[in-house]
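Appendix B. One record, verbatim.
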Amino acid sequence: MAARASLELNLHGDEVSKIVTEKGVVEEEVFSSGLKVLSFTSCSALQALPSFVGHLKDLLTLTVSHCGLCLLPDEMGQLTELKYLDLSFNALESLPESLGQCVHMQTINLSHNKLRALPLFEKGLETLRRLDISHNEFQVLPLPELRPKGLHEMIACTNQLTSLSDDIHTLTLLKDLDVSDNQLEVLPVELTACTKLKCLNVEGNPIKDRRLAKLLASHGLTKPKSILDYLSTFVVAAASSSGTKSTKSKKKAKSKSVSDDQVVEKPVRFFVRVLQSDPIHTVTFVDTVLPVRPFIVCVIVKGLDLSAQEVMRNFISLQTKLHEGVCEKRRVATIATHDLGMLQFPLTFEARQSSDIEIRPLGQSTDVTAADLVQELSASKKGDSTGLKRFLGLIPDPDLYACFMDATGKTISLPPLTNCDQTKVSALTKDVFVEVTSRKSVGTCRMVLDLFVGKLLDGRFALSGNQEQDLDDWLSNEKPPGLVVQQVRVNTSNGKLRVIYPSRDDLVIDSVKVERSFLQK
């Protein structure tokens, strides 16, 4: 037994057994009214705390861990100063409602019990910062019961969660969320409100969205912002479209009941028509770029209307947000857009010595070599006007640079630094050539392009008719599609296909109908 100035009592193993009655309750004589810290650990005989525990008005920390605890007294609610509660590794199946009176609670550890639900805490636990309910039997997060608006960390792994609570949107301060090893098939759109997330662990869940599952595997643990970007682009769009069915669709729904085994199609909010690649708009991949930036995917987006000043600003902002989010400040991938009419095909993606590359960077009127550009950026102040200096560290070889060249030998892109000013997108641009390059994987490039196209749709950049119209009527009346994209082939130097986008497996987006009519020819 260890005690200090009568303020702290820590009992372990046999020390606890000596003061436990035949009914499995701690003897009341052990307690001192002035206690601030009380701890019982590693005693399977301890099954309950006495009601006298409520007299410990000054108690700040209570630990009952690795015991046989299965019952807590209602008097627990009298511990109004309690800040730390650890009841882990016990046999608890329920908690007393009176715990809701402990309004100063900051940390609760309920892991490794048999809990399926929590009582309603009427006053809420707004001061709660850390909650661990892992290794229990919860099927949904107990957020409505706790209302922990100030929560920073939640550990809910290894439960039976089939969904996250809709109240997840109230956790605007949440930084760490672990819901691994559950039964989650989807993530709720409300999760996008948790903008301060630094770590999101969803491993070991049967997520149905394959693209989201891959994104979670590669970015979730350390870069959850990319997950939130994905949800806001694809899942939020799908959710918001649920109320946009046409009158015709609603009548059909009323006249015909749907059995449980029938497939209910989600309403179409946007339409994308994919045009087959042509032999003109191609890219040649030269092996010299392999050690520098080995992955590239391209697409042509047609029929954009960027004439309005606000729309043009939004188009630029779209790329910036993707660069900061899913592209992780260009560390994972870089997006570049060009006015298709200003390009001379075929294009070539290769690597050259920095002194052999000339480019006219965005916003400048003269050409410079890549070597001079890097030297100028390196010598500039930390807050250089272009903001490019911070990307210099992303170039693996200071002498060998990846570059995109057109048929005339003009450098149109120098990823991850800058594009060419002559081919930049303007308010007059209708057709845009988009390139995504990466050092990580071709899958990363595809995912970023999917997000880019999804953002274009959701941002209403397309020249289109009524995008919320019933799709069959839309097509039969030959209304303009929401967006037209054309495949781009990236070939090897000997003409063999290296990658093509979008393929059959790309642009799998909820509420978006993709037509690839050329595949049926």
